[in-house]
Amino acid sequence: KMLARSVSRLLARPSTALARRALSSGAPNITLRYFDSRGRAQGIRYALKDAEVEFKDDRVSLQHIISGNWFNLKADPSISGPFGVLPVLHWDDFTIGQTEAISGYLYHKLGHAEGLSLEDSAMSGALVSCAHQDVIVMCLQVLNVVGTAPDLKEEQIGQAVQSCTVRMNGILPRLEKLVGGKDYFLKDAPVMGDFCIYDALDQCKVILGDNVLDAYPGLKAFMERMANRPNIAKYIASGERPLFLTGAPQEAQILQKIQSVPRL
Q1: Where is the GST N-terminal domain (predicted)?
Q2: Is the N or C terminus of the chain more exposed, i.e. has fewer CB atoms within 10 Å?
Q3: What's the pTM?
């Protein structure tokens, strides 16, 4: 077992090597633009950091939104991309928007597709979609409900949290089955789907509590393994990671309300 674990650790490292091979033609000029929050871009940041790819993490300040200046920035496609929304990725002369599309692009650019089948690639895309369309959207809805209705009673906040919990109880067993006893979802190194699921479950823990994964040992081990990857651990320890999920000015107070209500 010790030998198997040692081999597994060695095999868990090739993400950086794959990226270097994929980028062997030269260092590209990369900018990832998103708001100063984790939101729908953090999984992308993790993938780039893990691969040791140099990029500009261009964050649009919340002040631009509060002041209304975001609407001026949004009208500029060089900032908001082809769809007028963030995140946007600039890779040399190529610009692409939308989280899922950026993730699919980086899946190939960072060498994640190496050694995987078309079906594996589709599964990585499905994991990215699950992370953002199901888990993150659902968790951020709780923040939005509590944040936009400051007079909500404790019971109503508890109901919003419970609704999120019920929906997560439908998703987590499926993710547990998919990861099984493997180190990562698809191969011996993380791909885009892994980075996005890691971020989504991390955001879920912020909303529902650290014990949300207690019944899922495979997912708990996966989360620990991802957090302990050297480049990700270094990135988190550096304080570079955005502090908040949404960047809303009252997020700390909203989270305090959510975390203080008794679970139904």
Answers
A1: 28-114
A2: N
A3: 0.87
